[in-house]
């Protein structure tokens, strides 16, 4: 899952070397925190959050076969 998030995020940004994904477990499930270069935050979120929503949809769909709850947080 982490690799999937990294591949998608690196394709969207101007500074792919600054893309990081941190993983933690909490009561909601597995939380993936995506952090990017400050100039690239808007590119990952998109207009009205459309790109962020699409990223979360792809990751959630991939997690269905593992029967896990996945949450993607974008850290600005």
TrEMBL record:
Q: Which GO terms describe its biological process?
A: cell wall organization; peptidoglycan biosynthetic process; regulation of cell shape
Q: Where in the cell is it found?
A: Cytoplasm
Q: What cellular component GO annotations does this protein have?
A: cytoplasm
Q: Does the keyword Heme apply?
A: no
Which keywords accompany this UniProt record?
Answer: Cell shape, Cell wall biogenesis/degradation, Chaperone, Cytoplasm, RNA-binding
Molecular functions (GO terms)? RNA binding
Coarsely, its chief localization is cytoplasm
**What InterPro entries does the annotation carry?**
KH_dom-like_a/b, KH_sf_prok-type, KhpA
Q: Which family does it belong to?
A: Belongs to the KhpA RNA-binding protein family.
Q: What does this protein do?
A: A probable RNA chaperone. Forms a complex with KhpB which binds to cellular RNA and controls its expression. Plays a role in peptidoglycan (PG) homeostasis and cell length regulation.
How does this protein assemble? Answer: Forms a complex with KhpB.
Q: What is this protein called?
A: RNA-binding protein KhpA
Encoding gene, per UniProt annotation: khpA
